[in-house]
């Protein structure tokens, strides 16, 4: 475990990759690397956050991210409280800010927030004293996902500099792709995004990625292929033909994987739609690092909690 970077980390909140310098990204990844070892211990608990209270506010469905934060907090000995919208006063019409102020009056040290509207964590961070971690805001950012993806790539490839990364799927509705393009570009990767025209946002190129509308051109020679789920819940109207047709054009099959480098790694943030964006034998095959991404999520969230809690709350 780490006591590294004393005084070097100054940030109270983690709201997006866009705010971070290259050095800050490196500090999180180095700290996460040192937390990985906790998961290998027979007793997976350290006293780092003893006496601290964390509140997980998930206003949108989540399996991986919410359980990952909760396990990370508990392994660091924090008192972790989960707050879900259906069992809260939000269903009685209380405003988001009132709910948050109520929680704030109980003086938690950290609020972890997921919300279907972009910038909600940013707005709350300005108004409340607790440290705030963005666990996904609309189709905007998902910083801890991009950090755990980067940790996985660094472990498999040694470094991100100069790698060719293809991100394929529903680019428009994905917060994962936005945070990943920003992070991977900051660490020197060449990033290509690919998907149907109906799911490609106007700003795709301004993110700094090359844009392709054919999957084959994106994954040819790639070191890393990251597949994304079709976010039906964020699409106002249907933008796709059938799932079968989508799979024909953009599904990751063994034949398509063969276009990439021999040592390509296959990633997916989950949840997976098998047979829609990815074939089962590829998701479960030797090049897939999907479950390692989940394992690394714990180390990254422990690192972020550790670093933010080292900075006084405002
Ligand atoms: C993603 C999300 O919710 O942004 N999943 C995750 O956090 N692991 C991607 C998705 O929902 O498809």
Provide an overview of this structure.
The strands form 2 sheets. This protein has a 5-stranded parallel beta sheet. A 4-stranded parallel beta sheet has the order 2-1-3-4, with helices on both faces. α2 packs across α11 and α5 (143-157) crosses α6. β5, α6 and β6 form a beta-alpha-beta unit. It has 314 residues and is an alpha/beta fold. The protein is built from 11 helices and 9 strands. The chain has helices spanning 22-35, 64-75, 96-105, 120-127, 143-157, 175-186, 215-219, 243-250, 254-257, 280-283, 290-309; strands at residues 53-58, 79-84, 110-115, 131-137, 164-168, 190-194, 210-212, 224-227, 265-267. N-carbamoyl-L-aspartate is lined by residues 64-65, 136, 142, 145, 175-176, 229, 231, 269-270.
Task: Name the features.
314 residues; alpha/beta; five-stranded parallel β-sheet; four-stranded parallel β-sheet; 9 strands; 36% helix; binds N-carbamoyl-L-aspartate
Q: How are the elements arranged and paired?
A:
Elements lengths: L21 H14 L17 E6 L5 H12 L3 E6 L11 H10 L4 E6 L4 H8 L3 E7 L5 H15 L6 E5 L6 H12 L3 E5 L15 E3 L2 H5 L4 E4 L15 H8 L3 H4 L7 E3 L12 H4 L6 H20 L5
Parallel strand pairs: 1-2, 1-3, 3-4, 5-6, 5-8, 6-7, 8-9
Helix pairs in contact: 1-5, 1-11, 2-11, 5-6, 5-11
Bound molecules: N-carbamoyl-L-aspartate (NCD).
Radius of gyration: 19 Å
Distance linking N and C termini:
27 Å
Count of DSSP H/I helices = 11
Stretches with pLDDT under 50, minimum 5 residues = none
Strand content: 5-15%
Elements, N to C (H/E):
HEHEHEHEHEHEEHEHHEHH
Shape label: globular
What structural class do the secondary elements suggest? alpha/beta
Report the bound ligands by name, code or SMILES. Answer: N-carbamoyl-L-aspartate
Strand order of the largest sheet: 7-6-5-8-9
User: What is the arithmetic mean of pLDDT?
Assistant: 91
Summarize the main sheet. Answer: 5 strands, parallel
């Amino acid at each position: 475990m780490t006591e590294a970077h004393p005084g070097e980390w100054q940030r109270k909140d983690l709201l997006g990759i866009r705010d971070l310098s290259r050095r800050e990204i490196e500090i999180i990844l180095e700290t996460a690397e040192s937390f990985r070892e906790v998961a290998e211990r027979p007793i997976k608990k350290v006293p780092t956050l003893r006496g601290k209270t964390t509140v997980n506010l998930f206003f949108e469905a989540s399996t991986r991210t919410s359980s990952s934060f909760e396990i990370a907090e508990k392994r660091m000995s924090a008192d972790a409280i989960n707050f879900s919208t259906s069992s809260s006063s939000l269903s009685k019409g209380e405003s988001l800010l009132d709910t948050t102020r109520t929680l704030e009056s109980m003086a938690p040290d950290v609020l972890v927030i997921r919300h279907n509207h972009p910038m909600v964590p940013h707005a709350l961070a300005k108004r409340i004293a607790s440290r705030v971690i963005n666990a996904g805001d609309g189709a905007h950012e998902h910083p801890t996902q991009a950090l755990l993806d980067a940790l996985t790539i660094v472990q498999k490839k040694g470094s991100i500099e100069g790698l060719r990364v293809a991100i394929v799927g529903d680019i428009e509705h994905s917060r994962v792709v936005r945070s990943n393009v920003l992070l991977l570009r900051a660490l020197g990767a060449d990033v290509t995004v690919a998907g149907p025209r109906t799911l490609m946002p106007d700003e795709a190129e301004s993110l700094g990625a090359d844009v392709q509308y054919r999957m084959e051109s994106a994954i040819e020679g790639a070191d890393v292929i990251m597949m994304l789920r079709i976010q039906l819940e964020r699409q106002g109207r249907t933008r796709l033909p059938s799932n079968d047709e989508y799979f024909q054009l953009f599904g990751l099959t063994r034949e398509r994987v063969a276009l990439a480098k021999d040592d390509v790694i296959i990633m997916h943030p989950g949840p997976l739609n098998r047979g829609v964006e990815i074939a089962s034998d590829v998701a479960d095959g030797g090049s897939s690092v999907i479950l390692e991404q989940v394992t690394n999520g714990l180390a990254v969230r422990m690192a972020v909690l550790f670093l933010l809690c080292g900075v006084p709350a405002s």
